[in-house]
Specification:
Layout lengths: L18 H14 L4 E6 L4 E7 L2 E8 L4 H11 L11 E9 L2 E12 L2 E10 L14 H11 L4 E6 L6 H12 L6 E5 L10 E4 L8 H9 L5 E4 L5 H12 L3 E6 L4 H10 L4 H7 E13 L4 E3 L4 H9 L8 E3 L10 E12 L2 H8 L4 H10 L5 H10 L5 H4 L10
Helix pairs in contact: 1-2, 5-6, 6-8, 8-10
Length: about 400
């Protein structure tokens, strides 16, 4: 395994290096490498550090297993956790400073057969938001997106798994709609970006100040636009729909497999279909895929199988690029990520269709006939434009044999 971390006395006596310095070095180097998460995993013969960079976990460093308890205890102290409790899961957080930037670190522990595993999520709340045109949408999608977010009222859902860039998309839109004559309020857990001109409220579930409680309070604050960080429960869903029906523009993220699934997720929460049809403005689903490293990018010719896939999707392969590997991308050929989007815009026809509550597959078929594209198609479009590779685009789930 390649040893990427430069750790003090890695093959010698660790007693010479304070554990606090070792922990800080792990955190600092992970931030420097643009990691989103750091995993500290105990095994019988080693204590493994893995980091998630551009969505992929990578082995980063190994330590003797005798150091595991001390490293975990140090981070638990920083996170204000109970260092004596080693059997029950715990959550905590702390802040650290790296090159003048304040980084919020969310920490979670769980007991394993070899000791406690600890995961740190690194959040830079002062990082700049991404411009709308840089998100990865096609020109047609960007037009629909801007039309949805320029509405005066309604409910807009952004779907995708954890870490798929939903907050980035919403904050990019907030930068556009946060103008002087509008009161824009967000309810977030955590606040991932700081947006000037926007009132941003953190959620504290442990203090009975969760999304539903904060959302009720925000509605009494004369808002024009409300962003709900996540619709997790029935109460939050109901309040969001009611707010959208009473003249507010409400954005919310939700866990669903695609844009149509976001609608049915609310229906599963017992939101009446006729109310949802009236409130619904649109849904966006997204996934992140790795971008070709600009430092080592070069053109490449597609294989016969890749050419066939592009042809099936009515896409050209004339601009295909791949990274040959360099120090900037850690020899992976990829650096940073771009989103593939699926966008479903409301219409009178789809609204009436929604009220009849058809099977999701039937609704999806009609949405496609109305112009919605698949996320897989959009990922392949990004490949055809040289932003990613066909192989990477196919990681979204298209089943094709590239052998």
């Amino acid at each position: 395994m390649t040893q990427l971390l430069v750790v003090p006395n890695i093959n010698g006596d660790f007693n010479d290096a304070p554990i606090s310095d070792l922990v800080q070095q792990i955190i600092d180097q992970a931030i420097a490498e643009r990691a989103s998460d750091v995993h500290l995993e105990p095994y019988q013969d080693k204590f493994l550090v893995r980091v998630r960079i551009d969505g992929r976990l990578t082995n980063y460093a190994e330590y003797p297993p005798t150091l595991a308890a001390a490293i975990v205890s140090r981070i638990k102290v920083m996170s204000k956790m109970n260092i004596v409790e080693r059997r029950r899961p715990q959550d905590g957080q702390f802040t650290t400073t790296f090159q003048g930037r304040q980084i919020d670190v969310r920490v979670a522990t769980v007991a394993t057969i070899n000791g406690e595993k600890l995961v740190m999520r690194l959040l830079d709340s002062n990082k700049p938001t991404v411009e709308l045109a840089e998100l990865g949408m096609s020109a047609a999608q960007l037009t629909i997106f801007q039309r949805m977010f320029s509405a005066s009222n309604g409910l807009i859902l952004v779907a995708g798994p954890t870490g798929s860039g939903k907050s980035t998309t919403l904050h990019s839109a907030l930068k556009i709609v946060a103008v002087e004559h509008r009161n824009v309020v967000t309810i977030e857990d955590p606040v991932e970006y700081v947006v000037p001109g926007v009132t941003q409220i953190p959620v504290h579930e442990t203090n009975d100040a969760g999304f539903a409680v904060q959302l009720r309070a925000v509605i009494r604050q004369d808002p024009d636009i409300i962003m709900v960080g996540e619709t997790r429960d029935v109460e939050t869903a109901r309040i969001s729909v009611q707010a959208a029906l009473t003249g507010h523009l409400v954005f919310s993220t939700i866990h669903a497999t695609d844009a149509v699934g976001a609608i049915y997720r609310l229906i599963q929460m017992d939101i009446e279909a006729h109310l949802l049809a009236s409130a619904f403005r649109g849904a966006i689903s997204q996934r992140l895929i790795r971008k070709v490293c600009e430092n080592c990018a070069e053109p490449y010719r597609p294989t016969a199988a890749e050419s066939q896939i592009l042809k099936m999707n009515k896409l050209s392969g004339t601009k295909l690029r791949q990274g040959k590997g360099c120090t900037e991308c850690r020899n992976t050929g990829y650096r940073e990520r771009v989103a593939a989007f699926q966008i479903l815009e409301s219409s009178d026809f789809l609204g009436e269709f929604m009220i009849s509550r058809p099977q999701p597959s039937v609704f999806r078929k009609h949405a496609m006939e109305a112009g919605m594209t698949t996320m897989e198609h959009e990922a392949l479009r990004l490949a055809s434009e040289g932003l990613t590779t066909v192989k990477e685009a196919l990681t979204l789930g298209v089943t094709h044999d590239l052998a």
